[in-house]
Each structure stands twice: as C-alpha cells, then as structure tokens.
C-alpha cells in the first residue's frame, strides 16, 4: 500500500514582503541550453528542537542531490562558507555569500513534533539582488516521508529559478528485469524518480511489459502474459489489485495508454496478421476501432488536450509516425527523416513528440515538433527505446540496453536539450519506464 | 541455398545445443529450444520418444518445429514452406493434437512493433497450415515479440535464429 502524504504547503509570514523577482538575475532559461551550472549554497537545514538533526541532514543532502542532478546547478561546498546559518529567522549576510559567488542561497529548518510529524521550512535568496526569491514555504509531513518533503523543497527552488514546473516529487513505474537474456524474468515495479523506495507491483510468474500511469498517477495500465498471451491489464497502485481489460478470443492486445481524461484507454489489438488501434471507455466498456489499415498500427499516445493521437505505422513500408484525430480518420505522416521511427509520446507541455529512431544499426531517442519539424536526436547507442516525459516536459527517461550475451537493460534520463545524460539507479535490470505526474 | 543449410543445421543441432554450447545458452536454453520459448517445458512431451513418428518429440526434432524469417518479414521462404508441409502432414495424421504457433522477433526493433511483427509471423504459419487442411480451431497463435530470444549474441548469426515461428504441440484441445 502506498499512502500519499498529506503535504500542506504554508507560506511563512513575518518576513519583510519582497516583490517577486520577475526578470532578476537569478534565472535559468532551460531552452537556451545552460553551459555553466548556477552555483548555489545550501547550508545544512537547522534542526529546531532535539531529534531532528539526522532528518535535517538527510533532507538537506537530498535537496542538493535533486538540484545537482538536473545539470543546471552546482553546489558550493560548505568548507567555502564564510557565514553559517544557525537560526532560520536571522537576517542573511548577503556579502558573505556573494564573496563565495553563491548566486542562490537556500536556507531551511526541520522540526519534529514527537508523534512522527515533521515540519520543513525553507527560503530561497537571490544573493546578488540581496533579496528573497518568492516567499518562505513550510511543508508538513511524516518522518518516513522525508524524501518527499525534500523533493518538494527542491521542486519549489527549481521552479522559482527556471520558471518551469518541478519534477522531483514524482514516481516511475517500470519493468524490473532479472536473469539471463534468454530466460529473463520481468516484474512491474514502482519507485521514486531518483530510484529510491522501489516496490514490486507484480510477481515474476509472467512477462509484463510497458506500464503507463493514469493522469492522476493512481492506476497503471500494462501488458501481461498472465493468460498465456499478451493482454492489457489495469492495476490500482494503492491496493495492487488488477483486472484484465481486453480478452477477445483469438486476439492479442498491447501498447495501452490513458487518455488525459483518465477514462479512456487506447491500445493495439493484433488479430490475424493485422494490428490496429482501438479505444476503450473504462466506465461504459464501449470499444471503438480508430485505424483500419492492413498494416501495423501501434504505440498510440494522446496529445495533452486529448484531441489528437500520435502513433506508429508501417503502412508506408517502414515504421513511421502519424498524427490523427482522437476519433480516428485519415492520419498525417509527420516523420520524414532517414530510418525508422517508433514509440511516439506527446510531451505533457504539448509542444514536442519524443520517439525512438533506428538508423544505420543505431538507436536514438529524439524529439520533434508535433508537425514533424525540427527533429533533434538526443541520444545514440546500441539500443535506446521507449521515451517517457518528466511531468514538466523538460526531461526524458528511456530504456538503454547493452549489446551481446551479457546485455542488460537499464534506465537513463536526458534533458530535452540533449544534455545531462544520466543513468537512473535501480537495484537490478530495468526497462520500459513511465514517469508519473507530479504528486499531490 | 545458404538458408536451407542453416535451417537443416539448426534442426540437427536441436537438443544438442544446450550441451554443445553450455556457456553460451545457459540453463534456460534447453527448455527454450526444446519446446519453444515461453510456453511449456520439454517435460510436457512425456509419452513416446523421438523415434515414435506420432510423438510430439518426433514432430519437434525430425519434422522440425520452427521456420525462420528475413529481417522485418513475415513471408514464408520455400524452405519454410517445406518444413510446414511436414508439420501439416503430421498434424493431419495426429488429429488429437493441437498446436500453438509462437511468433518471435530479434532484438533489433522497438518492443511494440516486434509484438505486432511476431503476431504476423505466427499468423503466416497458421494461414499456411490451415490452407493445407488443418482446422483453424487446432491452431492458436501467440506473439512473444523480442521477449524470448533463444540465441543471445547481438549478431546476425543469433538474430537469424530468433526471427522464428515455433509450432508447439499441445495434447488435446486448446484452452483459451
């Protein structure tokens, strides 16, 4: 069972109110492709009251890790500090932080109430402007949910400096892989975006593939061989109860994904030699066929407003990307570069489509505008596939598999700018990640 | 006939593969080669040895339970059709058995596309066998996409063996 924290964000009052910096110097424009990470100082959060010391240290460390992990920030080591922060309420000596070239200063305090409750507050300062950026915030949670509280702080800092939504307080559902390549066991698993708190959602008794979150993050669609053939299932993340959604005799179903309304599911059905895209209304059970070409149509993904669907088809002779209306009808081809294109996913911002591209024996994760223009390849390897978007549409996670007999799958993330390629830590092999929306 | 040689060699090597290449294929490969990947284990073929022409073991080892495909293709080569002619004859002579045709792909492709491609390959075999008189109700298809390779090097010599459709004999009727 996964319990969401009731995380109450409270504005901290009692500080001189500053006008929010609209276009001050403390700003990172992500689209410009940052070359030099912004230096910040993050003195250990003050433990207010006894018993909060280790929690304060853990939270401080994780806020730093979140920010550094974006590739947009650089943390200044505490050995360089001239001032120490021992009192959250005391005025900040900006000159001391300017002297070490800290552009941003994050201060915080952690307190516990003796019955498991934890309170975390923080302030973000624009050191060179000599003022606070936004207002202080306070989060209430529990000691076991300390990581989420740290992610919330880091999301607020990231968001204020970049002007984008955050993505640290989020989770990833994926396929955990063990065993050799020719006898691999696959289980659904869920974890925090940074690989922490991994839990299994299914056992290893049948192959499972390509889980996808509902828009609220409370349910997961996936494909399983539980019945002996691929069929799509719906799993409730809290109760871990699952049910099969499609069991037409003689058919196989796979590649499910939610519509933004959380009520409609799109997926592929293979019948005979043909694979087409269907939609299914979860409340009424009404099923609708959206494509009817004799070729392979699969990997559908809705636009964030639900009006259009991008999918892959080999109707031209090779796998290419097409966009059609959510009600079906004649699709428009959008991929025209060299090679083959598959697994398109519409960005939550609506501006880009991420995809897998195969060309000259290499695999790439790439992005293009929704009309197919401005294609950019972000990665290249023996086998990269299956992009999923961070909730803010700025980072993409995907599967990378190494070649050969000892080949292993693992998760990687990369900025939409193509920078900051990182391996996402998982205890074993991992594939088919799907990023949740930002948690509430 | 390069292809034919490979196919013939493959059949000859079947059942030996696990012993001749123990490091390469590991423990799981015996079952994978024996009964087709994923589905039942080799033990399901209990009764009747490979010398009994009405045994599933004979079907698997002597007639040949699999056909191979070119990259991205689901069309049957002349060699594949020759194998399937033998399979059809056996199925006609042994009407108590049903079969599941498993379609597979190599790892050079995205997961979803390979599932659809495996379905196409399994269906090619099913259509060919039904055209030779095997009733459709005795033949199910299932795709494994790239999920169940039997050869695990990342070279054409392995890919070639993974792009396959395997006819797995099941006693009695099909369950679903």
Automatic annotation (TrEMBL), chain A:
GO biological process, one term: cell division
Residues of the TolB N-terminal domain: 26-133
Pfam family membership, one: PD40
Main location: periplasm
One GO CC term, this protein: periplasmic space
Signal peptide range: 1-21
Keywords: Cell cycle, Cell division, Periplasm, Signal
Keyword Lipid biosynthesis in record: no
UniProt cross-references to InterPro entries, sorted A to Z: 6-blade_b-propeller_TolB-like, Tol-Pal_TolB, TolB_N, WD40
Subcellular location: Periplasm
Complex and partners: The Tol-Pal system is composed of five core proteins: the inner membrane proteins TolA, TolQ and TolR, the periplasmic protein TolB and the outer membrane protein Pal. They form a network linking the inner and outer membranes and the peptidoglycan layer.
Family: Belongs to the TolB family.
HAMAP family noted in UniProt: TolB (MF_00671)
Role this protein plays: Part of the Tol-Pal system, which plays a role in outer membrane invagination during cell division and is important for maintaining outer membrane integrity.
NCBIfam families reported for this sequence: propeller_TolB
Protein name per Swiss-Prot or TrEMBL: Tol-Pal system protein TolB
Organism: Poseidonocella pacifica
UniProt lineage: Bacteria, Pseudomonadati, Pseudomonadota, Alphaproteobacteria, Rhodobacterales
Automatic annotation (TrEMBL), chain B:
PROSITE patterns to which the protein is assigned, alphabetical: OMPA_2, PROKAR_LIPOPROTEIN
GO BP of this protein: cell division
UniProt KW Oxidoreductase keyword: no
Membrane topology: Lipid-anchor
Domain OmpA-like: 56-173
GO cellular component, one term: cell outer membrane
Places the protein is found: Cell outer membrane
Keywords recorded for this protein, A-Z: Cell cycle, Cell division, Cell outer membrane, Lipoprotein, Membrane, Palmitate, Signal
SUPFAM superfamilies xrefs: OmpA-like
Signal peptide: 1-17
Subunit structure: The Tol-Pal system is composed of five core proteins: the inner membrane proteins TolA, TolQ and TolR, the periplasmic protein TolB and the outer membrane protein Pal. They form a network linking the inner and outer membranes and the peptidoglycan layer.
Role played: Part of the Tol-Pal system, which plays a role in outer membrane invagination during cell division and is important for maintaining outer membrane integrity.
Family to which the UniProt record says this protein belongs: Belongs to the Pal lipoprotein family.
PANTHER family: LIPOPROTEIN YIAD-RELATED (PTHR30329:SF21), STATOR ELEMENT OF FLAGELLAR MOTOR COMPLEX (PTHR30329)
Stated name of the protein: Peptidoglycan-associated lipoprotein
Name of the gene: pal
């Amino acid at each position: 069972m996964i319990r969401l924290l009731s995380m109450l964000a409270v504005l901290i009052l009692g500080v001189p109110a500053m006008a929010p910096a609209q276009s001050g110097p403390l700003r990172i424009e992500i689209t410009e492709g940052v070359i030099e990470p912004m230096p910040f100082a993050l003195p250990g959060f003050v433990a207010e009251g006894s018993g909060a010391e280790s929690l304060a240290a853990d939270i401080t460390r994780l806020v730093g890790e979140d920010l550094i992990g974006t590739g947009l920030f650089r943390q200044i080591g505490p050995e360089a500090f001239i001032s120490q922060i021992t009192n959250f309420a005391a005025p900040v000596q900006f000159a001391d932080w300017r002297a070490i070239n800290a552009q941003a200063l994050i201060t915080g305090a952690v307190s516990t109430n003796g019955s498991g409750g934890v309170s975390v507050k923080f302030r973000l300062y624009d050191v060179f402007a000599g003022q606070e950026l936004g207002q202080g915030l306070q989060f209430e949670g529990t000691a076991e949910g300390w990581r989420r509280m740290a992610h919330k702080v880091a999301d607020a800092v990231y968001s204020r400096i970049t002007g984008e939504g955050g993505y640290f307080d989020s989770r990833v559902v994926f396929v955990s892989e063990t065993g050799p390549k020719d006898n691999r066991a696959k289980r659904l698993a869920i974890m925090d975006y940074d690989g922490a708190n991994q839990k299994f959602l299914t056992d290893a008794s049948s192959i499972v593939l390509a889980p996808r979150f509902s828009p609220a993050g409370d349910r997961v669609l996936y494909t399983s061989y539980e019945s002996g053939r691929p069929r799509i299932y719906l799993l409730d993340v809290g109760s871990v109860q699952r049910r099969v959604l499609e069991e037409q005799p003689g058919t196989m179903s796979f590649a499910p994904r939610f519509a933004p309304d959380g009520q409609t599911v799109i997926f592929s059905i293979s019948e005979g030699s043909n694979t087409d895209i269907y939609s299914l209304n979860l409340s009424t059970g009404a099923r609708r066929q959206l494509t009817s070409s004799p070729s392979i149509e699969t990997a559908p993904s809705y636009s964030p407003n639900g009006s259009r669907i991008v999918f892959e088809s080999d109707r031209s002779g090779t796998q290419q990307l097409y966009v059609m209306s959510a009600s079906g009808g004649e699709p428009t081809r959008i991929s025209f570069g060299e090679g083959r294109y598959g697994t398109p996913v519409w960005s939550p911002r609506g501006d880009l489509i991420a995809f897998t591209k195969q060309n000259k024996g290499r695999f790439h994760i790439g992005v293009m505008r929704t009309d197919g223009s401005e294609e950019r390849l972000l990665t290249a390897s023996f086998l990269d596939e299956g992009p999923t978007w961070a909730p803010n549409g700025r980072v993409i996670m995907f599967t990378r598999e190494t070649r050969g007999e000892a080949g292993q799958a693992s998760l990687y993330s990369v900025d939409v700018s193509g920078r900051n390629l990182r391996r996402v830590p998982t205890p074993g092999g991992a594939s088919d990640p799907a990023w949740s929306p930002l948690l509430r | 006939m390069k292809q034919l040689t490979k196919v013939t060699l493959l059949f000859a090597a079947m059942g030996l593969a696990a012993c001749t290449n123990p490091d390469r294929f590991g423990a799981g490969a015996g079952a994978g080669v024996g009964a087709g990947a994923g589905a039942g284990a080799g033990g399901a073929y209990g009764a009747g040895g490979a010398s009994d022409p009405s045994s599933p073991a004979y079907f698997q080892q002597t007639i040949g339970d699999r056909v191979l495909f070119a990259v991205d293709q689901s069309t049957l080569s002349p060699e594949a059709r020759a194998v399937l002619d033998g399979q059809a004859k056996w199925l006609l002579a042994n009407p108590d058995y049903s079969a599941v045709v498993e379609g597979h792909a190599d790892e050079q492709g995205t997961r979803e596309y390979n599932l659809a491609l495996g379905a196409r390959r399994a269906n090619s075999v099913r259509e060919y066998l039904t055209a030779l008189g095997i009733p459709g109700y005795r033949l199910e298809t299932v795709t494994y996409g790239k999920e169940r390779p039997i050869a695990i090097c990342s070279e054409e010599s392995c890919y070639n063996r993974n792009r396959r459709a395997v006819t797995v004999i099941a006693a009695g009727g099909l369950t679903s």
